[in-house]
Amino acid sequence: MERKLIKMKRLLKSIALAFIASVFIWGTAHAVTISFTDNHYNWPNWNVHTGDLNGTPDFLGGTAEVSAAGYLASLSFNVQAARSGSAYLNLFRGLSAADLFIDQNADDVWDYVVKSLYHSGKASVNYGLYNVIQPLGEDGPGTVKDANYLLATASNFRTGHPVGLKSEYLGLLKGTTELSGWWGSDAQYDVIYTPTFTFGENHIFLSDKFTVAFSVICANDVVYETLETPVPEPATMLLLSMGLVGLAGFRKNLRRGK
After folding, report:
1. Cα gap 158→152, rounded to integer Å
2. Contact 152, 163 (CB under 8 A)
């Protein structure tokens, strides 16, 4: 009886150790892609437009690539060019980027800004990635805290929406981020372009939730989305743990056989 209890304790200990090992293995070998759609018309509290789209472009959504270690690897945005028959193609061709904002733990305070404001053309360019501590704008447009933002000034319904952060409110330079995949003067009707931000390794560590915001300089369409970083399901972890236990037992028996 005592021997059985000892064996049972050893088995439980092996399972516990295997579970811990499986968490480590999953976390170090399982990069993920997170897809998202454009579900917001404005940033929260910045209600400057009642519709999703004003003219062109149309942000459809995108993907976030999260590394195996939990760092943001890239952000891609799917951008619909002017539709066939519209008068917006030349306007679309001349559009430039706004700054990219990232809230690494979805607490309504921006933690990072990529200073990509005014980027245009097809060439890939590296821009500064800065640490910031900038509230989303809980006091409402026009207040002192919100005055830190650069605002859209085009004569349209999104005049006054944030498109960048003033340089005096940038923190330390974290590194550089590449922006590629922008369109050029030869952009065509109905094509979906995919501008992509590629981050340096180990630059932005993400929590279980994080928020991203991006637009073009006129803020004709605004992306503001909170994404969830996937975690392994309990059943998956249990199967991996039992597999590790079984592998350990097999190796032990193999040694005995020798």
Report:
1. 7
2. yes
What CA–CA distance (Å, rounded) separates 22 from 59? 38
* This prediction's pTM: 0.80
Q: Is residue 49 part of a domain?
A: yes
pLDDT in tens, 81-109: 999 999 999 999 999 999 999 999 999 99
Q: Is residue 185 part of a domain?
A: yes
pLDDT tens for 122-179 read 999 999 999 999 998 866 556 666 889 999 987 666 888 999 999 999 999 999 999 9
Place of tokens 């430039």: 96
Contact between 30 and 240 (Cβ < 8 Å): no
Number of Cβ within a 10 Å radius of residue 110: 25
Domain containing 83: what range? 30-231
Residue 19 lies in a domain: no
With tokens 């180990």, the residue in question is: 202
CA separation for the pair 141, 122 (Å, rounded): 34
Containing H/E element for 55?
none
Count of domains for the chain = 1
41 falls within a domain: yes
SS3 7: helix
